[in-house]
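Support request, please re-run this one:
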Amino acid sequence: MRALIDRGAGWLTTARDRIRMHDWRGSRPWLRWSLVGVVLLLLLWYPVGMAVYTHIDDDTGFEPRPTAYDSGGSKAVATAAALVEREIERWAPNKPFWHPAAALDNMPNYQLGLMYAVSRFAIEMGDQLGRTRGSSAIDKDLDRAAGLLKYDGRIWYWGSGGLLPVAPAQRQYQNAAEALARYNERLANGEATYDRRADNLIALLDRVGADLGASSAALDKRALETNAGWFDTIADDLLFNVKGRLYAYYLLLRDIGTDFDKAIAEKQASKIWQQMLASLRQGAELYPLLVSNGYEDGFLMPSHLTALGFYLLRARTQLKEVADALSK
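Re-run finished. Output below.
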């Protein structure tokens, strides 16, 4: 028995010594490089992924496919649908935390501003332009599009306050674009209404002007609250949100001008219409590398919010002038 115990103790000692003396150096390089790889991935995932994913498309020459409107449909509606479809291909505002786009701020704010403007346009189409003098029933596709475009663009499959999965914003916006395309197809076939009267256009311009006024107030409020210059971390979010609205309004009003070319020409408002579009375009194309919210006369730290507000207010004034010309 004593020999058996001694043998067992010797075996345990030998096993322990082997474990202690085992040369782990052969496995350490693999472990070391794995840890280095994980650290590098974490360090590069967000900055590199953000640089690859970010894309603020402010091409003012953007055009919808001619087949979407050239047979009697609305070019503005075709542009609205095309804008929605373009943006949802790289939709950033609802990305989960593990996606590099979740760390972006300028692109999501730009897209949210753009989609808000398209949503306002869809509402006006349903309430005014897509009905006979506003007294007929609202068009089913315009009504559907307006409702879907109100969907919160920051919603992913989860995150709307409940435990059950929901439709992400991209899916809702895709359905809205399809509804706009169906309306345009029915319009081309003579099965839908597009009331191209001057008073309807005036109502649309008034709504756009009111929204531009709200955007101007937001810019002015932020400029008065702080003059932190390059260190204002909120100024860029606000600037790109307003920039997105101006960009969408520029494209939509540009093509509304095509839809209502006869009414605008009859009221001799073509010149001021083009001036209004030029102001919107200049504001939409404003793209500072770094957004500064400094003093209006600042040298090292200018006020980009004030610069954008200038084009916005000029466009709003010209919208009123167009409305006055159309009302005569």
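The longest helix spans residues 198-225. Residues 1-6 have pLDDT under 50 and may be disordered.
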